[in-house]
Amino acid sequence: MYAIVEIAGQQFKVAKDQKVYVHRLQEAEGSKVTFDNVMLVEDKGNVTIGAPAIAGAGVTAKVLGHLKGDKVIVFKKKRRKGYKKKNGHRQYLTEIQIEGISVSGAEKAAAKKEAPKAEPKAEGTDLSSMTVAELKAAAKEAGIKGYTSLKKAELIEALSK
Fold this sequence. Notes:
Helices cover 12% and strands 45% of the residues. It is mainly β.
């Protein structure tokens, strides 16, 4: 079982008992933290995808410690101009260990309802007042090949035939 979760502005693929280094969190060492912004959960072949996040899903983790990352040297130079700038950076990090992934209240991918399809417009409607998405849906229903790459004017011309 794994999940894709957003932690401190970045997305991570996490599994139970995995250790992850993330940007510095405010929680104290040894405390537990829950991340609710879960984008995807895979459990024994069943994949649940959120839009954008899965309602009711969460990832719990324990903060193991706060530390600093490796030193990164940034050196800027312009040749023959006498311009040199040297700068260093060490990112503040937090090491966390994933304790569990819960999907309570989440819908499974197989049980999800299909999105309602767009209703086709009546034959007498003005094609120029339709949006590009509506035109593409109508072209798909009409069986026009290559409708995804057509522009609005080309879609109107193809549908009017």
